[in-house]
User: Which sequence fits this backbone?
C-alpha cells in the first residue's frame, strides 16, 4: 500500500537509527571512561552495589594508613628503648668498675660524672621520644593507645585494638620506674666502692625491664602486621568485586559498538530507500 502523507517506513527507520545512535553514544562513553556504569540509569542495582564497595575500600585504605602509623609509632618507641638499654648496660659497666678496689677515688669521681651524664641522657630520651606530639615513654604506669584498624563496617569494639606497654620515668638522681618496676640507681653510690656494687644489679634490672617493654611492643607489632595482611587481602577482594560490577569489558563494548555502527549505516541506507517510496506514487498518477 502506498501513502504520501505518512511515510511509515521512513519513520520506522528513523526510530531505529535514533536508538542505534543512543547505543553508539553509550558504548563510546563506556570505552572512553573505562566504566560500565557512568550514571544510575546504566544499572541502578549495580550502582548501589558498587557504591557500597567504594565506601568499603575507602574505609580499608584509611584503616591501612592507621595501621602504618601505629607501626611507625611502635618503631619510634622501640628505638628510644633501644638507646635506653644501651645506656643502662653502660651504667652497669661503670658500677662494676667503681666497685673495684684497684681504682682511685679520683677515677670513681670521673665514673660518677659519666654516670650523671648518662642518667641525664636517659631523661632526655624519655621526654624526647614522641610521635605526632604524643609522648611514648614517659609515665610511671603504662602507655595506652586505642588504634582504629577496621573499615567501619563492623562495630567499634571489633575494629579497635589497645596498644598497652610499660612506661619509663627517671629523675636526676637516677631513681624512678621502668615497666612498673622500681629502679634505684642512686648516682651518689658511684663514689663508693661498697655502694657501687649494689648498682650493677639495679642497672641489670633496668636492662631486663626495658627488654620486656620492647618484647611487648614487638608482639603487638606482629599483630599489626597480621592486620595489615588482612586489610590488604580484603582491599584486593573488594576492588576485584568493584571492578566486576563497574568496569567496562572492552571486548564486549567494542563488539557492541561495531555492531551498532554497522546497523546504523544499514539504517541510513534503508531510510534513504524509504524516502523514495512516496516518489514512486507519482508513477501511478502518470
Assistant:
Amino acid at each position: 500500500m502506498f501513502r504520501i502523507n505518512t511515510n511509515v517506513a521512513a519513520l520506522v527507520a528513523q526510530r531505529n537509527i535514533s536508538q542505534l545512535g543512543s547505543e553508539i553514544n553509550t558504548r563510546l562513553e563506556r570505552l572512553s571512561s573505562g566504566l560500565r556504569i557512568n550514571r544510575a540509569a546504566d544499572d541502578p542495582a549495580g550502582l548501589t552495589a558498587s557504591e557500597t564497595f567504594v565506601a568499603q575500600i575507602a574505609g580499608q585504605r584509611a584503616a591501612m594508613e592507621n595501621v602504618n602509623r601505629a607501626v611507625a609509632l611502635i618503631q619510634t618507641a622501640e628505638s628510644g628503648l633501644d638507646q635506653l638499654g644501651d645506656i643502662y648496660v653502660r651504667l652497669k659497666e661503670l658500677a662494676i668498675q667503681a666497685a673495684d678496689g684497684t681504682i682511685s677515688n679520683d677515677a670513681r669521681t670521673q665514673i660518677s660524672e659519666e654516670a650523671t651524664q648518662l642518667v641525664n641522657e636517659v631523661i632526655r630520651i624519655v621526654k624526647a621520644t614522641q610521635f605526632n606530639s604524643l609522648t611514648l615513654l614517659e609515665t610511671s604506669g603504662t602507655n595506652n593507645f586505642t588504634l582504629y584498624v577496621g573499615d567501619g563496617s563492623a562495630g567499634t569494639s571489633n575494629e579497635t585494638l589497645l596498644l598497652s606497654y610499660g612506661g619509663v620515668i627517671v629523675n636526676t638522681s637516677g631513681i624512678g620506674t621502668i615497666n612498673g618496676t622500681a629502679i634505684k640507681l642512686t648516682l651518689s653510690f658511684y663514689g663508693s666502692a661498697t655502694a657501687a656494687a649494689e648498682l650493677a644489679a639495679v642497672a641489670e634490672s633496668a636492662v631486663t625491664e626495658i627488654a620486656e617493654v620492647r618484647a611487648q611492643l614487638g608482639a603487638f607489632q606482629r599483630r599489626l602486621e597480621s592486620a595489615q595482611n588482612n586489610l590488604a587481602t580484603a582491599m584486593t577482594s573488594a576492588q576485584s568485586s568493584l571492578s566486576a560490577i563497574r568496569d567496562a569489558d572492552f571486548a564486549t563494548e567494542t563488539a557492541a559498538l561495531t555492531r551498532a555502527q554497522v546497523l546504523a549505516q544499514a539504517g541510513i541506507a534503508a531510510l534513504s530507500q524509504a524516502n523514495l517510496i512516496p516518489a514512486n506514487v507519482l508513477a501511478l498518477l502518470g
